């Protein structure tokens, strides 16, 4: 992207931004009516017009039913989409609205509806208008929560979800460039007041950004940090794949395996670096547990207990006793049962919890 953060995006720049999407059959553009996604729609329409053949574009707006103005904003998006020659759909979130965690629930519902819309439009990708500024905010949010390397990698340009790919073609573009693009094109956009509502964490952190920028921590450097961490994270994932293969190769043919469980030789597992051990456990628990993804902190606690149990087992006066198959550790986490028995770590789905009688 241009070094001048306030310049409108040129035809050539837009062509590069969308290049990898050129051969997709169809694309869904997720457009809320805010400046970023209006710019996405305008840029994508201009790009598509410049191609002799290319993907069909469908614009989708989700009305979460949370703000009175949302329906009017959706109509405004439809008007502009029609002007640009693009079909538009408004989808409503009709589910019950939770009292706490509303932004997360709204986001989840939004992605579910967008993925459904992609499927019915025959689209391979849903495009959102996340910018470099959003990337910086995401990194900051995860930083204050103490996330691990994977979380600090923030958003990826492409993320698979339920057979559709979520694409963020504007992830390296500063928001100011999108505003400049709209101004040049004389296109209006809605302002979502919840973006400034300090009842939510993200707007509160967003308000800190100018101070950080004054210290040199601007969106560019925060997004660059996210990119570097993503690179490191990808490398550790490859190492974890290798570790998984290494553990499998060490197993004898009679080692217990199966689609419904994973098991590792504890001694070999213990020689691996801590971060890799952690990821192996996390992968197995997330694959076999039935209560959603495990929290990193909880897996860290489990691993400390497991490490100690492996050590104790090694030091046991009678290794024969340790090898008799009786579990020396048995714990559940995120719907998975993790046990250490006979020198092996085993991860399997936890038995369904018994319902307590009143
Ligand atoms: N109501 C909506 N309808 C359609 N698309 C939307 C809507 N809200 C957001 N989007 C899409 O998602 C992008 C990011 O929006 P926003 O930053 O508000 O999301 P968020 O709540 O922070 O969630 P996340 O960043 O995790 O997607 C927008 O640029 C737009 O492409």
TrEMBL record:
Q: Which residues bind ATP?
A: 32-37
What EC number(s) does its UniProt record assign? 6.3.4.19
Principal location: cytoplasm
Organism superkingdom: Bacteria
Keywords from UniProt, A to Z, are: ATP-binding, Cytoplasm, Ligase, Nucleotide-binding, tRNA processing
Record's family?
A: Belongs to the tRNA(Ile)-lysidine synthase family.
Domain statement? The N-terminal region contains the highly conserved SGGXDS motif, predicted to be a P-loop motif involved in ATP binding.
**Which PANTHER family does this chain map to?**
TRNA(ILE)-LYSIDINE SYNTHASE-RELATED
Q: What is this protein called?
A: tRNA(Ile)-lysidine synthase
């Amino acid at each position: 992207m241009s070094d001048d953060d306030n310049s409108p995006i040129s035809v050539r720049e837009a062509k590069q931004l969308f290049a990898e999407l050129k051969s997709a059959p169809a694309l869904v553009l997720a457009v809320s009516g805010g400046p970023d996604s209006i710019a996405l729609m305008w840029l994508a329409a201009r790009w598509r017009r410049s191609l002799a053949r290319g993907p069909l574009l469908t614009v989708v707006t989700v009305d979460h039913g949370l703000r009175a103005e949302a329906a009017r904003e959706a109509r405004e998006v439809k008007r502009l989409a029609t002007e640009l020659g693009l079909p538009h759909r408004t989808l409503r979130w009709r589910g019950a609205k939770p009292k706490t965690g509303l932004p997360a629930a709204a986001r989840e519902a939004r992605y579910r509806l967008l993925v459904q819309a992609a499927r019915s439009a025959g689209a391979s990708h849903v495009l959102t208008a996340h910018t470099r500024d959003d990337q910086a905010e995401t990194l900051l949010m995860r930083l204050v929560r103490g996330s691990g390397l994977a979380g600090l990698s923030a958003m990826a340009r492409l993320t698979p979800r339920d057979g559709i790919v979520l694409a963020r073609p504007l992830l390296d573009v500063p928001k100011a460039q999108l505003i400049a693009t709209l101004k040049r094109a004389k296109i209006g956009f809605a302002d979502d007041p919840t973006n400034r509502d300090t009842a939510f964490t993200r707007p509160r952190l967003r308000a800190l950004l100018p101070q950080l920028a004054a210290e040199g921590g601007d969106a560019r450097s925060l997004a660059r940090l996210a990119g570097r961490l993503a690179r490191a994270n990808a490398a550790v994932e490859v190492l974890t794949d290798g570790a998984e293969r290494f553990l499998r190769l060490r197993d004898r043919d009679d080692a217990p395996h199966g689609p419904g469980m994973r098991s590792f030789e504890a001694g070999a597992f213990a020689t691996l670096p801590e971060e890799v051990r952690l990821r192996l456990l996390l992968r197995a628990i997330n694959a076999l547990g039935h209560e959603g993804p495990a929290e990193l902190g909880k897996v860290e606690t489990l691993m400390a207990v497991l490490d100690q149990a492996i050590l104790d087992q090694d030091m046991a006066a009678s290794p024969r006793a340790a090898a008799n198959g009786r579990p020396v550790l048995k714990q559940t986490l995120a719907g998975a049962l993790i046990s250490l028995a006979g020198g092996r770590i085993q991860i399997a789905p936890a038995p369904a919890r018994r319902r307590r009688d009143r």
